[in-house]
Amino acid sequence: SNSNGNSAMVSVRTEVHLLTPTVYEELPQLVAAVRILDAVLPLTPPVAQGMGIVTLPHPTNPALPGLSASCTVVPENGLCTVQMMIPAGFWQSLVAGASVSLQVDFAFVPAGSTDTVTSSSVGSVQLVRTLRSAAAVLGVFVQSPDRLLHVGEDFDVPVQARTTLAVRSFRLRVEVPQSVSVVQLLADTAQWSCALQVGSSPAASATYPAAIACVLSEGALQQASTTLPATTVEVE
Fold first, then answer.
1. CB 107 within 8 A of CB 68
2. pLDDT in tens, 101-156
3. How far apart are CA 156 and CA 228, in angstroms?
4. Hey, is 110 helix, strand or coil?
5. Which residue blocks in 11-168 are alpha helix, DSSP H?
6. Sign, CA torsion 186/188/189/192
7. Alpha carbon 131 to chain centroid distance?
8. For residue 91, which of 132, 37, 138 has the smallest C-alpha distance?
9. pTM
10. CA 20 to 30 Å from 96, out of 41, 126, 172, 200?
11. What's the burial of 15, exposed, middle or buried (CB within 10 Å: 0-12/13-18/19+)?
C-alpha cells in the first residue's frame, strides 16, 4: 500500500506490505514490511529516522481497545519490520473455527515529533481461530493443525487419552507418509519416564513409523485423563 504525507520538514511516501494476510491462532503474529521513501525522489530513503506504527481494531467490539505495534525506520534504507502479537483475548472473542477480516492502518511519525506525517489503510488481515476439533478413536484424541502448512515447517500434534482407569504405562506408535518426518515425540517428564523408538520404514511401505514407550514416574499421580506425547513432525 502506498501513501504520501507532508509536513513543514518531512515529505515522504510510504510502502507497507502485509507479510501475513492471514493470521492463525496457532501462530498469532501479524508481520508487516515497511518502506519509507522521499516523496520528491521516489527511490531515495528519508534522511531522518522515524517510527512506523501499525494498528488493528478489536475483532468483535470497536469500542474496545485495539492493538498497535511499531518499528524504527532505518534512515540508510528507509526499511523496518513491524511484528504484532495477537493476544489471547482477541481470539477468545471469536467462536471456535470462525474468522474475521480486520482493517490494518499505518502511520509514520518522524523522530523527535509527535505529529503523524502520513497515515493510511494498508489492507485487511484475516484472523482465524482454531477449531480445536479432535479425531477420537477408543478414547484417544488427536488434534491436527487447522492452518495451512508449508514445506519444511514443523508442527505439533497433541494427543490425549481418556480412560475410566488410571494409566500406569502406555506406548504410542505414529505412522506418517514418507513425505513427512517425525522430528520428536515428547511427554511430560515430570509425569512420565519415556524411551523413544524410531524405526526405519521398509522399502515397500508408504509410511514412516516412530513410537514412544512411557511408564508413570515415581511419585507421580495416576490420572484417568492422560496427556500423551506431543508429536512434532515436519513436512518435507
1. no
2. 999 999 988 877 766 666 778 899 999 887 655 555 556 667 777 777 777 777 77
3. 12
4. strand
5. 88-92
6. negative
7. 15
8. 132
9. 0.59
10. 172
11. middle
In whole angstroms, give the CA distance from residue 45 to residue 38: 6
What are 42's three cell numbers? 521516489
> Quick one: which H or E segment has residue 223?
none
The cell numbers describing 231, all together, are 508429536
Q: Is 122 left (phi over 0), alpha (psi -120 to 50) or beta?
A: alpha
DSSP string, 46-73: -SS-EEEEEEE--SS-TTS--EEEEEEE
Q: Sign of dihedral through CA atoms 159, 163, 166, 167? A: negative
CA 102-11-105 angle, to 5 degrees, is 5
- Give the C-alpha separation, 120 to 110, whole Å: 16
